[in-house]
Specification:
With about 180 residues, the chain is mainly β. The chain has 1 helix and 10 strands, in the order βββββαβββββ.
């Protein structure tokens, strides 16, 4: 852990109004489809020299609304989130490195559809600072790309030219603003 992380003290809870979790995936080779989750929670805990990050999103809270059949396929279908059986997507860190230059590396286990796999996200870290209301806030902006097949999300259909309708790589981004609770 770098020196910057030593300015972190205690537990930081997610400010849901100022945080987002998104995913992006190539769609039919012509665009990037993006969606977000409304039901997001996270906690950053600093105890002695140990920094831990835990988070979760409600699979059903994905921002896809229309068309209803598409939402149903993504949210409840066995090809994607299967939210009835697996209502939450979770992350639990195994290591957190917050460097003096603002770089952040967070490794841990991402669980989707009941399957946990190790991932390492990279991004930036903002050291704690007081806001105008006397709260102490810190921020993490993280990115990781996963192959969705590792979590049994392997739906695919071929395009007329032989390409894939949906990319295998999914970029997950988390912009987390956290407020010191203790």
């Amino acid at each position: 852990m770098a020196t910057t992380a030593k300015t972190l003290i205690g537990t930081y809870e997610l400010d849901r109004a100022h945080s987002t979790v998104h995913f992006a995936i190539n769609h039919v080779g012509v665009s990037t489809f993006r969606a977000s989750f409304a039901d997001v929670d996270a906690r950053l805990t600093v105890q002695d020299d140990a920094v831990a990050l835990e988070g979760r999103v409600g699979a059903e809270s994905v921002s896809i609304v229309e068309p209803a059949e598409f939402r149903e396929h993504v949210v409840r279908g066995d090809d994607f989130f299967a939210a009835d059986a697996f209502p939450e997507i979770t992350f639990r860190s195994t290591s957190v490195a917050l460097d003096d230059d603002g770089a952040a590396t967070v490794a841990g286990d991402l669980t989707i559809r009941g399957t946990s796999r190790p991932v390492t996200a990279h991004g930036t870290y903002q050291p704690p600072r007081e806001d105008p209301f006397g709260n102490v806030r810190t921020g993490l902006d993280l990115r990781v790309t996963i192959d969705r097949r590792g979590w049994q999300m392997d739906w695919q259909t071929p395009l007329p030219d032989g390409g894939d309708a949906l990319g295998w790589d999914v970029e997950i981004t988390a912009q987390l603003e956290l407020v010191r609770a203790s």
